[in-house]
Amino acid sequence: MNDEKIKIIVPLDVPDLDSAIALINKLPQVTFWKVGLELFTSTGPKILDILKSRQKRIFLDLKFHDIPNTVAGACRAAAGYGVDLLTIHATCGSDALKAAAEAVEIGAQKAGTKPPQLIAITLLTSISPRQLAFDLKIPLELPEFALEMALLAEKSGLNGAVCSPQEVQQLRETCKSDFLLVCPGVRPTWSDKGDQKRSLTPSQAITAGADYLVIGRPITAAAEPELAWNLIVEELKTFPTKNQRPLD
Ligand SMILES: O=C(O)c1cc(=O)[nH]c(=O)n1[C@@H]1O[C@H](COP(=O)(O)O)[C@@H](O)[C@H]1O
User: How far is it, in rounded angstroms, from Cα 119 to Cα 163?
Assistant: First the structure.
């Protein structure tokens, strides 16, 4: 496997533009960056222009969660930025998911850009089975709930789902083959789990069927981010690539 085929998305989970640029400069080999709630709230779309000017791919992770009319408006606007991936919570329900799927097409068409792949959060990777039962009062087993949310997203016309690596195999086997599966909560054996509750290693996640891995702090908070990146890339190179598929 060459480095081009390494499907790792690194989140720019930093507070401001200067810190984001410093991180992008520190890791020139990263081709796919995620812009999430912290950075987008602080800088707005400026960071997207910077990433585009450097020919980087962009995962705009705003995790929309609202009524159909509101998520549709937000998705129309976000699609106009010409990003590659966009997130919404599956728990918005089918009406909102369908409205969002339609809205990204309309927003992209209006802006003359390619529509982003709209992917649904099934269940945040920071939630444990115990929290699902006792905090969220969901009476299903966690893997069943994650699968139901992925199937709801698929039925509603979304392009894929975000799930923990612990559920990805089941989703891969059940959802259609071009349904994109993106896994955060990935942790090399040498890194801290932090607030992630349902993690696996990078090679385990890819072997289980993940299309993309979102790996943040093990790389970005490492004393030497480039070394951490290289270690993960080396780990993935030693594993079979049969499950790796291109995004386009
Ligand atoms: O949508 C996401 O990317 C996401 C979904 C989820 O269920 N869990 C999750 O951790 N994420 C994001 O993935 C990244 C994980 O970062 P690290 O825990 O530092 O590797 C963060 O930017 C989270 O916002």
Answer: 10
